[in-house]
Structures are given as structure tokens and as C-alpha cells.
Specification:
heterodimer, A: about 375 residues, alpha+beta, Butyryl-CoA Dehydrogenase, subunit A, domain 2, Butyryl-CoA Dehydrogenase, subunit A, domain 3, 4-stranded antiparallel β-sheet, 10 strands, globular, B: about 400 residues, 4-stranded mixed β-sheet, about 15% strand, binds flavin-adenine dinucleotide
Chain lengths: ~375, ~400
């Protein structure tokens, strides 16, 4: 067994951490969240130049052939700096959808532009009534001539306002909660009949409600086979969860370090508050939560491509459960130990705390993944 | 022993219930149901309705405008108000400085300040915490130096809730730094319009502007604004803190939130199915309700041990810890039920001037907003770590 990084992974980590340290963080977030898109196109271009957008694609597809562990390395660094650029939606989610479901023609057409930083993607998988169930799809697509017509609405689509291509799940047969009969379509954000209602999110990012009113797409918009979209969506979710777990680990590390540092300098009752045993124990617990979370994020990355579906499910859902619990503890205690300062928009602590709170909810919270875990076991 | 209310108490409850159902303005009630922040003008409108009825300050002695109710009646009243969806009025005048003034103030001060607190015309804020003095409040450094019949105040207060909307601030200031730190503190009332005061906003993690930093730069305050004796402010401050924790359990408000959570869990609006049927969620909902019951009956038990006008003692420390923990777990249940719809930044849900319906469905309104603000409850009013220290020291003699 060897769980150490390769030289390439160490290099990737170092360059990502350097980039994040120089450009990102809470101050950047406070600036960017008031802009129309909520992130920097300039950073996005730099990420393309650094080759990060190419990471998970095979060399054949114009990528670097990176593994889930490589993505983990990058996402952990992103988590340390509250990176706002749409890496998760475009590269991880969009990339996963294309790789799992895309035809050769679709990959040839779209991946190079994605890798160059010219096309942004998102996946519109959630619906207002669906909660965390990927299969709960009320949006419909019906055949019309050689193409399709899509009707319905999609909820809380991450970066739905800036994406150029929106991969939409729609029902081509069956009932709303059937596992089969779901198809995926690559829809142009500017397609007539597609309406977006954008808004800022709690963690300083952006999302949109997307309404589809008789949106016409051509036959080649279908991603994967008709009615067999669910396994592709599940793959998208698993890759996203694995990446989010790594991001959360990065965020927890920052909160742990920041809190330890703060309690060493903040004085009350004539001494640094780090001297109070109850706070020392609290920080020891934070550290343990962080370490457990890091281990589980690694397990998810290592088993994401496991042949055994039970092993894969337990690793990915198990990691999401651990991250949810650890992230909640570390985030809440970091705020608590900072006292009033922890409640401010000015300090970074609150921003990491909010991001961790949201990561718990994205792609299903602790409860949801406990159920997935026990159903697999 | 009898757990039920007496016939008189039941009649009183019915009277209060009927009155509030009628008197609470529909728009304010609706805003509360949607989880919106109630604006200052609306709070004042409600304040004046209660004042007119004579019910604005139930805990005050009758001679100063109180109701003369028993502790149980006051409990019933607070409970009924919250259950009806009435907003909480700011505590700074009614529950904090008011009682300090009628207990320790001069006759002149009572005449000058109590009417404005009762009729809602004058708003107060609390100037205790400083950048260097939070948990260790007695170390405070804002200085008041005697100069003829005035004090000259210099220094800064922080986390001052509502300073930007307040007419007056009650401050702890240092008038002596030679002896024990608790012994050189005085309690001073300062008009916010006095030259030399500057209020600078602090935005908190839910995007709200509720707290501020207040700077005092050679602020001249008449000596007649001193409460009680110079250097004895710590006694009044402690009296006030105990009052602050009085009723901190906020059972009625918690039941009101619980009802919103239950309603949402029983609907299929956000989940396609009833979350109330989900065994995992059901269990946590039940656990939280049991905790609420335990809190409610602890409050009643402590209450029944009190004489009519005796303020709660150290049990308030336990209630503060238990109540804030419960409030935080309730708001976690709430955001959990909202699922993805806790993700949009909801602000105040202030949709004024916009025809668009809010993104977040009405029933889930304010869930994340309250969750984020609620993280402060284990920090302010004496952090829960400090409360536990007091419990260990005072109740367990450790
Ligand atoms: C939203 C909000 C509103 C507020 N409104 C007001 C207001 O209107 N007026 C006002 O005067 N103040 C107000 N406060 C201030 C509040 O009372 C202080 O934040 C509180 O007393 C804690 O002080 P601090 O923030 O300086 O934290 P610190 O005292 O620095 O504490 C930091 C951490 O150390 C812990 N700690 C400190 N000492 C010990 C110890 N001896 N043992 C163990 N742990 C310890 C604390 O529990 C906390 O977790 C408000 C605060 C907030 C967040």
C-alpha cells in the first residue's frame, strides 16, 4: 500500500495552492460576489492555461488523463481558497456527463472548447419537488419530428446563469419517480423558450432557476441513450460528491488552522483563550474531525472507479456522510471559538463555515447518504 | 402538586389569546409566518398597540406601568404572544435598561426615561462589549473622565445591536482604574445624538446589518445621566444580565417555529413526498420536540419555585445553554427540510419593490437566514462556555 502523492500530484498541489493563495480567499469572494457572474473570467483562462480544465479527460479526448485522486488534489486546494470559478459544474459535472454519456461526435465537438475555457457547462438535475432524488424528474421531453421538445422547470442549477451549455434531465417515458425513462439533453443556454432566473447563493456563489417552455432541440442534443440517463446522472453526482468532499477537506483545514491561531492571540481574563481547557479539547475534536474527513475523501477518490458497485456506493456515500458531519462540527465550532468576530462578513471564518454548510446539502445531505450507504451494504 | 393551570390562569390565557388574535395586525403576522424580518416601524406600531392596552411591560412593578401579574401569568402572556406569531420587541429598553432605571435610578431619571421606553418613542441599545472585552466584560476600557458637571467619554463599544436605529445607549464605562477591575465601572446613559459619537456598521454572515461598532471621541455627558453611584455600575450590570436571561427559553417562539417545521414536513411541496414520513427525519423531529418539552417544563418548574417578584437566579444560566442549543438544532432541522432551497441567498426576503415571487418557497422562508443568525446565540449574552463555568462555580460549588 502506498497513500503518498506522486511527484506529479505534489507539483499539482503546489501550483494550485500557489494560485489560490495569490488570487483567491475570502477577500476575493467579497469582491466577486457583487459581480454579475460571481467569478473571474480571467482566472478561468489561467486555469485553462495551467491545464486544470483538461485534467480529467483522456489524452485521446484532448485531456491529461488525470485520476479522481488528481481531481481531489486540485479541489482540496480550491477548498482552501473558496475558489468561485465554475470548475465543479463545468469540468467535474459537465466532464463526467460527457465522458459517461457522450458520443464520439459530442466529445469531439465539446471537450476541446471546454478544455480551452471557451465553453462552460452545468447539469440541471434537481427539480423543485425532487429533493435529493436524481430520478424524480417531472420535466418532459417529447419527440417532435427528428428533434425533441422539452418542458419543465429545474431548481437551484449551480452556475445556471453563466453556463453556455446546460445538460438537462427530462422524462421521455414513465412516471415521475421511475428510474428508467430519463434522458439527458445538451441544451444551449440561449435556446428560445429557456428562461433563467439567477440569484446569489448563501456561500457567495451563484445559481439559477431554469424554466423550459417548449424548448426545441435537435436529435444530436440527446446525451447517451434515450431513457437511460439515470446511470449517467448518478455518475455525475458521484464525481461531484468526491470533488466536493476534497473541497470540504481544504476548507476544514483552513478553519482549523485559523481557529488555533486566533485562540493563541486573542486574550481574555489576562491570557490567550487557547489556555482554556474546554477550548483546547474543542480544537482537538476539530482536528480529529478534519482527519477523519480527509481519510474518507481519499477513500471516495480511490474507489470512485471501483468495479464493485457496492464498494463504490459505500465509499462515496460514506465520505459524504463523514464530510457532512465533520464539516458541520468544524464550521460551527470555528465560528463559536472566534466569538463575535466569527459572525462577521469581514472575517474569512464565516465564509468557510457557510461553504461547508452548503456542501453538506449539495447532492444529498447526511441523512440521504446514510440511506444510500445502508441500502448498498 | 398540580401541573395544570388554575381556572383563573386558564381564563387569563383565554383572554390574552382572544385579544392578540384580534389586535395583532394581519400584515405583521403574515411577515412573521413568512420568516421575514419585521421592520422598525412595524415593531413600533405593535409596541404602541400593546402600550395602549397596558400590556407593554408585564414584568415591571405596577407603579411604573407594569401589570401586577404573577410570574405564571407573565409566562402565559409571553407564550400566547409568540404562539400567535407576534414579533419579539427589542429588549434593550423594556427588559434591560428600564428595570435598571426603576430599580437604581433617581426620581428625576424615572420621570425622564421610563415614559419613552413604555410608549415606544425612544429606542435604546446596549453598550457593554468592547473589542478587547467580550467574555471578560469587567476588563472594559471605555473611559469617562470627570470634568465639572460632565463626564468626557472616550473609547469604543462593539457588537452594539441596533445602535444605528437607537436614540440612546446605556454604557458601561470606566471611571476608576486603580482597584479591582469590577470596582471602577459606572453605568451611564448617553444620547446617541451627542457630538463625538460615530456608528459604524458591521455586516454579519447572513448579510444583515444588525450590529455596529460605536466610537466615542470626547463625548460630553451630563453627570445627571449617571445611574446610581459612580464606580458601582458592575452591580447594575449584573442585575441587568440576569434580567436579560430571564425568559431566554422563549418557549412560545420555539413552539411557533416548531409548528412551521411540522407544517413543512407534512407537505410535499419541497420533497415530492412527506418528509414527516421519513424515519430518519421523524426521529430527529421527535427528539427535538422532547427537548422542547424538557425545556418548557424546566422553565415551569423553576417558575413555580419563584415568588411573584423574585427574578430567576442561576437556573437562568442552565436555561440559556439548553435553550440556545435547542434553538440551533431546530434551525438545522429547518434548513434540512428546505433542502436545496436553503441554498439561495435569501436576505431578508425583502421583496418590496419587486413583482417577482421570492425564489425560496414561502413556507421555507428565512430558514437559512435564521440558521446563520442563530449561531450567535451561543456567543452573546455570555457565551455558553462562560455559562457552564458559572454553573460549575455557582451551582456545583466547584
Ligand atoms: C449578533 C451579536 C449581537 C450582540 N449584541 C450585543 C449588544 O447589543 N451589546 C453588547 O454589549 N454586546 C453584544 N454582543 C457581544 C457579545 O456579548 C460578545 O460577543 C460575547 O460576550 C463574547 O465576547 P467576544 O465576542 O469578545 O468573544 P471572546 O470573549 O473573545 O470569546 C471567544 C471564545 O472564547 C471563549 N472563551 C472566552 N473566555 C473563556 C473562558 N474563560 N473559558 C472558556 N472559554 C472562554 C468564548 O466562549 C468564545 O467561544 C453581541 C454579539 C453578537 C455576536
Amino acid at each position: 500500500m502506498d497513500l503518498s502523492y506522486s511527484d506529479e500530484q505534489t507539483m499539482l498541489r503546489d501550483s494550485a495552492e500557489r494560485f489560490v493563495e495569490a488570487n483567491c480567499g475570502a477577500e476575493n469572494l467579497r469582491k466577486m460576489r457583487n459581480t454579475e457572474e460571481g467569478f473571474s473570467r480571467n482566472y478561468w483562462k489561467q486555469m485553462a492555461e495551467l491545464g486544470w480544465l483538461a485534467l480529467p479527460f483522456t489524452e485521446e479526448q484532448g485531456g491529461l488523463g488525470g485520476t479522481a485522486v488528481d481531481t481531489m488534489v486540485l479541489m482540496e486546494a480550491f477548498g482552501k481558497g473558496l475558489v468561485l470559478e465554475p470548475y465543479l459544474t463545468t469540468v467535474v459535472m459537465g466532464g463526467a456527463a460527457l465522458r459517461a454519456g457522450g458520443s464520439d461526435a459530442q466529445i469531439e465537438e465539446l471537450v476541446p472548447a471546454l478544455v480551452e475555457g471557451e465553453l462552460m457547462f452545468t447539469v440541471a438535475y434537481a427539480e423543485p419537488q425532487a429533493r435529493f432524488d436524481l430520478f424524480d424528474v417531472a420535466t418532459t421531453a417529447r419527440r417532435d419530428g427528428t428533434g425533441w421538445v422539452i418542458d419543465g422547470s429545474k431548481a437551484v442549477v449551480l452556475h445556471g446563469d453563466s453556463a453556455d451549455k446546460i445538460i438537462v434531465s427530462a422524462r421521455t417515458s414513465g412516471d415521475r419517480r421511475d428510474a428508467t425513462g430519463i434522458s439527458l439533453f445538451i441544451v444551449d443556454a440561449g435556446a428560445p423558450g429557456l428562461e433563467r432566473r439567477p440569484y446569489p447563493t448563501v456561500d457567495g456563489s451563484r445559481a439559477a432557476e431554469i424554466m423550459l417552455g417548449s424548448v426545441r432541440v435537435d436529435a444530436d442534443a440527446l446525451l447517451g441513450r434515450e431513457g437511460e440517463g439515470l446511470p449517467v446522472l448518478e455518475r455525475v453526482a458521484d464525481e461531484a460528491i468526491t470533488a466536493l468532499c476534497a473541497e470540504a477537506v481544504g476548507a476544514m483545514k483552513v478553519l482549523l488552522d485559523t481557529t488555533v491561531e486566533y485562540t493563541k492571540t486573542r486574550e481574555q481574563f489576562g491570557q490567550p483563550i487557547a489556555k482554556f481547557q474546554v477550548l483546547r479539547h474543542r480544537m482537538a475534536d476539530m482536528m480529529m474531525e478534519y482527519e477523519q474527513a480527509k481519510s474518507m475523501a481519499l477513500v471516495a477518490a480511490l474507489k470512485l472507479d471501483s468495479e464493485d458497485p457496492v464498494e463504490r456506493r459505500k465509499a462515496v456515500s460514506g465520505a459524504k456522510v463523514q464530510i457532512g458531519k465533520s464539516g458541520r462540527f468544524v464550521g460551527q465550532q470555528a465560528v463559536q471559538l472566534h466569538g463575535g468576530m466569527g459572525m462577521t462578513d469581514e472575517l474569512s471564518v464565516g465564509h468557510y463555515f457557510k461553504r461547508l454548510t452548503m456542501i453538506d446539502i449539495l447532492f444529498g445531505n447526511v441523512d440521504h447518504h446514510l440511506k444510500q450507504f445502508s441500502a448498498a451494504a | 402538586m398540580d401541573l395544570s393551570f388554575s381556572p383563573e390562569e386558564t381564563a387569563f390565557r383565554d383572554e390574552v389569546r382572544a385579544w392578540v388574535a384580534d389586535a395583532l395586525p394581519a400584515d405583521i403576522k403574515a411577515a412573521m409566518e413568512r420568516g421575514e424580518k419585521v421592520k422598525k416601524d412595524d415593531l413600533r406600531r405593535w409596541h404602541k398597540i400593546l402600550h395602549e392596552k397596558g400590556w407593554i411591560a408585564p414584568a415591571w412593578p405596577k407603579e411604573y406601568g407594569g401589570t401586577g401579574w404573577t410570574a405564571t401569568q407573565r409566562y402565559i402572556f409571553a407564550n400566547e404572544m409568540a404562539l400567535a406569531g407576534a414579533p419579539d420587541l427589542p429588549a434593550f429598553g423594556l427588559k434591560m435598561v428600564g428595570p435598571v432605571i426603576y430599580t437604581y435610578g433617581s426620581e428625576e431619571q424615572k420621570r425622564e426615561y421610563l415614559p419613552g421606553i413604555l410608549n415606544g418613542d425612544v429606542w435604546w441599545c446596549q453598550g457593554y462589549s468592547e473589542p478587547g472585552s467580550g467574555s471578560d466584560l469587567a476588563s472594559l476600557k471605555t473611559k469617562a473622565v470627570s470634568d465639572g458637571d460632565e463626564y468626557v467619554v472616550n473609547g469604543s463599544k462593539i457588537w452594539t445591536t441596533g445602535a444605528h436605529e437607537a436614540d440612546w445607549i446605556f454604557c458601561l464605562v470606566r471611571t476608576d482604574d486603580t482597584g479591582k477591575k469590577q470596582e471602577g465601572i459606572s453605568f451611564l446613559l448617553i444620547d446617541m445624538k451627542t457630538p463625538g459619537i460615530e456608528v459604524s456598521p458591521i455586516i454579519i454572515i447572513n448579510g444583515d446589518h444588525t450590529v455596529n461598532q460605536v466610537f466615542f471621541n470626547d463625548v460630553r455627558v451630563p453627570k445627571r445621566n449617571l445611574i446610581g453611584k459612580e464606580n458601582e455600575g458592575w452591580t447594575y450590570a449584573k442585575f441587568l444580565l440576569v434580567n436579560e436571561r430571564n425568559g431566554i427559553a422563549q418557549i412560545g417562539a420555539k413552539k411557533h417555529t416548531m409548528a412551521r417545521i411540522r407544517k413543512l414536513a407534512a407537505s410535499t411541496q419541497l420533497n415530492g413526498h412527506r418528509l414527516a414520513d421519513d424515519p430518519g427525519y421523524q426521529r430527529r423531529l421527535a427528539e427535538t420536540e422532547v427537548a422542547l418539552m424538557a425545556l418548557e417544563y424546566s422553565e415551569l418548574r423553576f417558575l413555580s419555585g419563584q415568588k411573584t417578584d423574585h427574578a430567576p437566579g442561576t437556573e437562568a444560566n442552565m436555561m440559556k445553554v439548553a435553550a440556545t442549543q435547542l434553538q440551533q438544532s431546530m434551525s438545522e432541522l429547518f434548513i434540512e427540510i428546505a433542502g436545496y432551497y436553503s441554498y439561495p441567498f435569501d436576505g431578508f426576503r425583502d421583496t418590496e419593490g419587486s413583482n417577482e415571487p421570492p425564489v425560496v418557497p414561502e413556507d421555507a422562508g428565512g430558514a437559512m437566514h435564521q440558521f446563520l443568525y442563530g449561531r450567535a446565540s451561543t456567543i452573546y449574552g455570555g457565551s455558553n462556555e462562560i455559562q457552564r463555568d458559572v454553573i460549575a462555580k455557582v451551582l456545583l460549588s466547584l
